[in-house]
Amino acid sequence: MYPLMFTGDGAAVAGFWTVFTVWVLGELWFQWKRRLPEGAASADRGSMQLLIASVWIAVPLGMGAAVVLSGAAIPVARQELFTAGLLLMVLGLAVRWYAVAVLGAAFTVTVGTTQDQGLVDTGPFRWVRHPSYAGSLLTILGVLLCCGNFISLLALALPIAGYAYRIRLEEKALIDALGDPYRLYMSRTKWLIPKVL
Questions:
Q1: Which domain holds residue 66?
Q2: CATH number of the CATH domain containing 17
C-alpha cells in the first residue's frame, strides 16, 4: 500500500502538497532572512547545518520507506491517519509561525545572543521554552504520519536528535547571556510540551 500523498483522492493530495510546499518555502525564507545580526555572539557550533540535515534526510527517508517498504504500511484507518497527519502539519506551522512572530527580530536561524538580549516569556513561551521547535516537530510528525507506514515514523528520530542538540546549545547561550532570569524561566517551563517535556 503506497502512501496516500501519492495515491489518494485529488483534494487530499492537493492539500498535502500545498501545506508541504508552504512549509518548505517558509523554512527557506527563514534561512534567507533571519540570520544573526552583525555583532551578535554566535554559539551555533554547527547546529543549524545539523538540524537542516536531520530534517531533510528524515522527510525523504520517511517518504521513500513508505514506497519501498510498503509491507510496513499501516493497514487500518489510512484516510483518517492521513487527515490527522495533515492537521498536525497545519498545527505545527501555526505554532512555529506564532512563536516566530512573538520573538520578532530576536528570531534567528543561528544560535547566538546580542548585547541587548532579553527574555521572552509571552505568547507560547509562557508554556514552553522552544515552541518554534515544537511546531517544527509537529509538522515533521504530520508529514511522516501522512506516509502511513510504521518504518516512516521511525525517521522522526533524526530531527528529534537534531533539535535536542540545538536546544542544549541554545539554552547554554541564553544562560550565559541572561543568567538567573533565564534559570528561573527554565524552572517553571518545559522544553517542548507543557508540563511534560
A1: 4-35+42-111+119-188
A2: 1.20.120.1630
- Asked whether 62 and 153 are in contact (CB, 8 A), the reply is yes
Give the global pTM: 0.91
Matching residue, cell 512555529 = 96
Q: What is the DSSP string of 84-121?
A: HHHHHHHHHHHHHHHHHHHHGGG--SS-EE-TT-----
Q: Name residue 73's beta-bridge partners.
A: 149
DSSP assignment of the chain equals ---HHHHS-HHHHHHHHHHHHHHHHHHHHHHHH-PPPTT-EE--TTHHHHHHHHHHHHHHHHHHHHHHTGGGB--S-HHHHHHHHHHHHHHHHHHHHHHHHHHGGG--SS-EE-TT-----SGGGGTBS-HHHHHHHHHHHHHHHHTTBHHHHHTTHHHHHHHHHHHHHHHHHHHHHH-HHHHHHHHH-BSSSTTT-
The answer to whether 190 touches 128, Cβ cutoff 8 Å, is yes
pLDDT in tens, 52-102: 999 999 999 999 999 999 899 999 999 999 999 999 999 999 999 999 999
Q: Residue 183 in contact with residue 171, Cβ under 8 Å?
A: no
Taking Cα atoms as reference points, which of 47, 49, 52, 64 lies closest to residue 143? 64
User: Has residue 101 been placed in a domain?
Assistant: yes
Residue listed under C-alpha cell 512563536: 99
